[in-house]
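Exercise 7.
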Amino acid sequence: MARILGYIASSLDGFIASPGNGLDWLQRYEGMDLGEHDYNRFLKGIRTVVMGRGTYDFLARDPGPWPYQHQRVIVVTSRAISEPKGTLEVRHDVDALIAELRELDDGNIWMLGGGQLQMAFMERGGLDEIEIYVMPELLGGGSPLFPATGIRLSPTLINAKTLDRGCVRLHYSLRSE
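Solution. The predicted structure, written as tokens, is:
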């Protein structure tokens, strides 16, 4: 059975993007040594990438090649995507999508991007684990790691580790088994 995973970077004050959806603060850390937790290593274990429309639009604006050409990509949106940048599927019903993903057995699933979709999955018990890479940056505002929805959870810490350049990796299980 595939696991549904989160892998995301956050500022120390809990934001994944600065005001205006900027990632310049995070791009300063490109090339840092994450060792066994490196993004490319993580991505090799991913068969399906799930993202919201905002994340898709952000990635589609990049002039470079589509970064997920070797994965199945599902975009959760209620709006049509007229000229998709890469091969993708569209879904709008999160409950049905979680049920569909739970049936997959061809590799892990990554919840890519913003906290809004990750929170929708957490509210439904649809996210198994999350790795949060806390960067030593204070943004003072922007897009929160976890939008306030009123949900209360008590994740189980799997591991906490200090990495290169002051980054801290927090790895939690969200399963209540």
